[in-house]
Amino acid sequence: MHNSYWFFALLISSTIIFCFLLLKKRNFQTVLLYLTMVGYGYIIETTIFNFLGSYDYYPNLIRHNSFYDSELGAFFSNALSLPVIATLIATFQLNWFWIVFFSGYFVGIEWLFLKLHIYTHHWWRLEYTGLGLPIYFVLAKVFYKWILLPSKGFKHYFMLYLITGSISASAHILPMLFFLNRFYRPGWFENEGRDSIAFSAIYYLCASLFYCLIVKVKWKTKWIKYILSGLFTYIVNLVLIKFGILYSLVWWDQMYYVCLSLLLIVLVKIIDTRLFNPN
């Protein structure tokens, strides 16, 4: 059980820092930047972790599936500690000294987790983390400048997609990890957990694009987008079940994802408006 203590330490420290940021800045742009960095991190993690098998985490919090447990460990890193520090660096406009310092700090944590055997590399190396994190932190500063000003064109759509993806992915995958409400079996990997998470990542990436597009379409009758979103989600689930890809295991599963699609339309519309008018 000692494994979990280290991951909870990341959770607690990240939560304290994020609460500090909210109290100091008291603006919605801080939240938007945090979600942007989560969404960006998810895309990177989908590529190197889910599909390329870069490393594994061992928080020992989920006992019924080892890959789900590893996925939760990745969540502590990519949805909490890294985006929170990136948000800290960007919102306080910290210089290169702090970028190098926090990059070294996370390399040190990674090295410690390796020594504690609660994390292991496959083809990944500490050097990749050391080289990648400064880029990640610099991008946070770039995104923050975009968020502070009214955004249009590519900047607007890119940030809207990343923010939508951060919410969509978390709300889609976390219930699967804890409640086993569904799993996917496209047959890409032998490990059922990895197979399920890999497909759910593709699902959320496509769903996020759908939410962004449907919000941007001008509707004479606004409630039609909600009907189309819920109906489309329900039909996609039925098709995936029909082809033996989706296995829905609890009575509330499909209802949850239909309601989630409606909620995301509301949230994406709010975020879209705030990106256009940040003040």
From TrEMBL:
UniProt entry keywords in alphabetical sequence: Membrane, Transmembrane, Transmembrane helix
Highest taxon, organism lineage: Bacteria
Residue ranges of coiled coil: none
Regions crossing the membrane: 6-24, 31-52, 72-89, 96-114, 126-144, 156-177, 197-214, 226-249, 255-271
Name of the protein this chain belongs to: Uncharacterized protein
Natural source organism: Paenibacillus aestuarii
